[in-house]
Amino acid sequence: MLETLAAMEQPASLLAIAAAVGLSKAGAYRVLRTLQDEGYVDHAGRQGYRIGSRSLALASLVGPRPALLQRARPVLFRLAAMAQATATMHLRSCEHRVLVLGTEQVTEPQKKRVHIGERAPLTSGCSGRVILAHLPVDEADAVVAQHTFTNSRAKLERELDIIRADGYALSFSENHLSLNGIGAALLDLDTGYPLGSIAIAGPDDRLSEGTLRTLARPLIAACDGLAPHLTALLGPKSSARRESLDVTIQDMVAAARG
Question: InterPro entries, from UniProt (predicted)?
């Protein structure tokens, strides 16, 4: 199913995918739903389905880096070197964010903090919450309702308001113990829709709240600079681009099989 979808213009409709793989509409939906739940496929509403962020992360392990990762690598390297910390890029996959690329400036090699394919809810950590904060209200509300308890919902909603005002999110020992971080969103140029995020993280004894806030401006500038390239690859018109993800991942699948 993934190989077929990767070869199609995306988003692709359920009927088109079912016909391409030789399944009934109901059978294709069940497979796609399972892939969507695991983050390998994203549902684009009435437009259909497209390759998801987790597929991209997996593809980055078995083949040449996709075009967007090639664009992002030097950006992350500069951020990591400036902060003497870890810089990572995350893409949205339904109610989660997926780590697709990272670079580290650490003195202890045994403390590797970049794990390609790592997945976490958008409600957890700066890299997820900064995406969540920029989602349309109805989408954000649905994610918040699914991943939080009633008594913590109001607190998270207040935090999302702060993130929207500041333009960045902070986290303190959330997804990883003793690691603090700051994240900014990668936004579609035309719609302002969040496609992903970039985060800087490091030990809490070096990256205090004050230090993290000094990184906000260069981090946001880096996101603004990378966003046009990411929009071309993942935005609503990405299926018309020569470097779109469907072509990239199709090439990777062929390379992996060969």
Answer: GAF-like_dom_sf, HTH_MetabolicPath_Reg, Tscrpt_reg_IclR_C, Tscrpt_reg_IclR_N, WH-like_DNA-bd_sf, WH_DNA-bd_sf
Let me know whether 27 and 69 are in one domain.
Answer: no
Same domain for 43 and 79 = no
Give me 165's structure tokens: 């005002």
Three-point CA angle 107, 115, 70, nearest 5°: 90
In order along its 258 residues, the chain shows pLDDT tens digits of 887 887 677 788 999 999 989 999 999 999 999 998 888 888 888 889 988 777 766 665 544 445 667 788 899 999 999 999 999 999 887 788 888 888 888 655 545 566 777 878 899 899 999 999 999 988 898 888 887 776 688 889 899 999 999 999 999 988 788 899 999 999 988 888 898 999 999 999 999 999 999 999 999 999 999 988 777 766 555 433 333 333 344 443 344 334
Q: Provide the domain count of the chain.
A: 2
Confirm if 100 and 67 have CB atoms less than 8 A apart: no
What is the spatial distance between Cα 64 and Cα 252, in angstroms, rounded to a whole number?
Answer: 7
Contact residues for 187 (Cβ-Cβ < 8 A; gap 6+): 134, 193, 194, 195, 223, 227
Domain, as residue range, for 1? 1-51
**Nearest Cα to 222, choosing from 188, 193, 183?**
183
* Residue 73 sits in the same domain as residue 32: no
CATH number of domain containing 169: 3.30.450.40
The per-residue DSSP string of 99-134 comes to EEEEEE--S-TTS----TT-EEETTSSHHHHHHHHT
